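Reopening: structure tokens for the iron/sulfur cluster complex, inputs below.
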Amino acid sequence: KMADKGVVKWTYSTCGYCSTGCSIEIGTNAQGQPVASRGVGGADVNRGKLCLKGIFEYEVFEATGRASRPMVRDTIHEAYAPTHWDTALDKMASEIKRIQAKYGQDSFAIVSTGQILTEEFYTLGKLVRGVIGTNNYDGNTTLCMASAVSGYKRSFGSDGPPGCYEDFEHTDCLIAWGSNLPEQHPIIYWRLKEALEKRKFPVIVVDPRVTIFAQNADIHLPITPGTDVVLQNALIHVIIKEGLEDRDYINANTNGFDELAKEVENYDPTSAAKICGIDEDTIRTVARLYGKAKRAMSIWTMGINQSTHGSDGVVGINNLNLVTGNIGKPGGTSLSITGQCNAMGTREWSSCSGLPGYRALEKPEDREEIAKFWGIDPEFFPKKRGLTETDIFPAIETGEIKGLWLVATNPMTSMANTPRIRKTLEKLECLVVQDAYYDVESSQYAHIFLPAGIWAEKEGVFTNTERRVNLTRQVKQPYAESKSDMQIFNELAKRFDNGKVIRFPERPADVFEEMKQLSKGRLCDISGMSHDLIEQKRGIQWPYSEEKVADNENGSQRLYTETATFCYPDGKAKLIPLPFINNNEIPDEQFPFWLNSGRLVEHWHTRTKTGKIGNNNKFSPIPFMEMNPDAADEMGIKHQTYVRVTSRRGDAVVMAMLTQRVPRNMVFIPFHFFDCVNRLTLGLLDPYSRQPAFKQSAVAIEHVDQD
Ligand code: SF4
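Re-run output (same inputs, fresh job):
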């Protein structure tokens, strides 16, 4: 088959879509054009398999909408004028300097992504902190992973997923919280199925929808949206009441048990059932399964993270695992399934609160160490924590921020409350959009557009959900006149005074060497890795120090072991009481349905790529809404007819798909489509992580007359 496609060369890479981190090879023909993709057989993660997105990933290189030249304009009401790179970058640098001189150093903000390479995140962090001199810099990962980061830090003293996919092969019980693996992470689901074929263990899925995962689970818990913490407290209540907690582990490894035990006293299954909607006998059954299992693990995705209780939901999962002694042993873990291919890269190497190698911006010793390493005055460093993406947009509304640079992210489609985001972007004095596709919706409001290369037009690494650093080699040069994101960062840096002082290596492998030095002795130690070794081993899990190379080890499957200490000064994890306060927008008479949103297997985020690939787009070319047939019947709504969905923010017209997947009081709309579900979402924020609650808004439905 590959001979038919004319493949003459295969190049090693890592899939640029989701955080599973599949090793992939891209086949190019004699003209150097990508014409095929295939999974890499010897890779630990995917063992030769790819999902629908990976199989057709070679088509993204030349998909419709690839941007070929930089473009500029003075106002957003004019047409863009194609221009040269020097003109675009000069204009960008002078706009940043003008805005900072007029309104202050922090009046220009940057929002990046989880899609670019780790060497690029590191370089962007250096540019933003060391050259532009602001900390109003965040990743769009605040929309998907911030609650996991916050929850890990609160429980264990540091971010960093403790487990790995191999844990499926050792566990005796698994709870999946708000995660639809078969659609969102199909290859991780395949790994789970493989483990289940070898050894049966109970799989419990907590999700208000009857997802494909829920359908295939042993027990489905159709929870009331936003009440996971209540269920977690009730499970711990039963575990303690029935003496199923692991006292030895608790005494040796945790603080705060008595306070937690006191709090969960309030969550007996009878009372909890009334709030979380799961009957009390089922709560007891699940608690016993988890408490009695020799090794038990929990995984979760956006159903936990995208909530006003997102951070608490993660802490609740950690509480459950710590009380049952399930952190640090094979098959016993809290594993957050990340979203984007390199969401972990932003966490390790830069974000609004972090400096490279999980250093903290708030710590003077960390700032001084990085300033010395980069060769700049520590006084230049922004010292206070910056704004998250979700706080940057309100700061534009109030006039605190006047300029914004978006790197491979598309808030016009991805942020909650689209009507408000549109007005916000229109207020900016300067918006720079850096993206591979000129038709990304946010570019409608940009003054400067910079065309960027996509994943395998560059070389560098991603970190996946299980801390595995994997490599992408360059398959081809960036499209037309576009440049790699790192080239763009480096060339912008030269236009600032500090940018002439700080070293910005041009080769990704040299940047990686710099990162290795900074990682030595840190939790995310990568000092034993090199691009070549990573390719040879098909990915290596951090921490991976030079000593591990000497011992010929493959990487660290687990972050903590039964004897290794957590990251708080006394080496113990924290058990944290979680009182539940209901603070969602709850359905009422005017807006009687819960609105839930999520992914489809064939699409990726805002469809800038998959919306143009025939084999992906043909399955779901238009937005739709899942609605329960009984609720639809009461309202005279028929299958595949159009309805208007209204919230307090706006409205959207979508096709109704009648299905038992959603309960009577809920509708579900995929989040991939422009001017659709996020016209309706409220996006209240989690107080710790500032992550929005995309899945808990209230809406009304009306039939649209089609005659
Ligand atoms: Fe790519 Fe994720 Fe599919 Fe693997 S599961 S091929 S990483 S999109």
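The chain has 26 helices and 28 strands. The CA atoms of residues 68 and 480 lie 5 Å apart. Marking as resolved unless the reporter disagrees.
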